[in-house]
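anyone seen this seq b4? input:
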Amino acid sequence: MSLQPAARSQASAPPPALAPTQAPLWAVYAFTFLGALGTGLVTNGVYFLAKSALGYAETANYLLALVFGVAYIAGAVTVGPALRSVARRSDRVTSRLVLALLLILLAGVCAVPIAAERITGAPQAWTLWLLAAVYAPLTGALWPIVEAYLSGGRRGRELRNAVGGFNIVWAGAVAASLWLAAPLVEPQPLLVLALLGLLHVLSLALLPALGREPGRHLSDEPHEINPIDRRLLRVFRILLPASYLVSSTLQPFLPSGLAKLGVSVTWAAPAAATWMSARLVVFAVMPRWHGWRHAPALPAIGASMLLAGFGLAVVAPSLGGTLPPPVPLTLMLAGLAAFGAGMAVIYCAALYYAMEVGAAEVDAGGAHEALIGVGYAAGPLAGLACLAATAPIKNHISSAVIFESLLAAGVTAATLLAVFIALRLA
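predicted toks r here
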């Protein structure tokens, strides 16, 4: 759920003769909601589960995130060609069949951690590393096909409305997943993963409504393109993966950062969901308020909210000893809200300009997905580099303050460099 549906569906959906009819939106949305509850919690919440089950701190969580990012790149680059190759060899391989196989595999890998715990009597670290390595490429294969069902047979305003609803559904599910998992994060963290696997199994019941194949892709009639929009498309194509770099740096940090501010294990995941809730609000507003379209200042606005929110959220834990207890936590939650709003602005704008201007120009080989994966991998690398730089400092408080300052400054500098490159290209 990190790229434009129109672009991704062309890249990754199997190519047999597509049906001319649309998949019913209710079925696509229901499938999306169940799937996003699972994939959203694994992508954003596995670090809270790892901290609860295995006591993971920043270093282990950043390494876990790095495995996830590298696996995501591998899945993004290979899934499209693999599905096309299989589909060419057999008419029996349909998009619906591939979805069914993916759901079964996702459910299976979610069951491994709890099964190993029940057999050995204790949580097994290797199961979470297996989950990160296997779950990421599977989701990289799942969502492009879902988005093919979403966009197939739709175009113009109908397609934009469908995508707007899709964004609200998956973003709402991701935010809800951390709240729903909260009661089990401390007593039964690995059971949460098993329940997510059950959601994937339940999703199988929706497949008959989707049809064997997505509807045929429909292109808009040729229309005049605003030169400003073409430049903005180039800018947001770089800002989108850059925003995922920032996000993948922040996610593994949040369990330890919130713990430093006295937030319990039970409430840490819902507190982290603040940024997802802010993203959901912006997702609901932007499709209905069109004043942001064709605005050259929008990239700067989105990037400013993203970076200001990130910096505030990362630095807030180091203020715990100097300010009254509620203030640092309030600052962190405010930073998360600004970060989520910035993520939403960049995502919505990148999606809009890709459909309005560049749907036909996006590389169909998965290169853009790989860029998102680079963002997923580069963020943990930035975190690990900052941890390595502060390792020689023996004073724990000084080390933590310098780490958080380095993390905020380094990621901000990298993102500003991406913004500068984007503006030069535009």
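Residues 60 and 252 are 9 Å apart (CA to CA). The radius of gyration is 21 Å. kinda curious what u guys think
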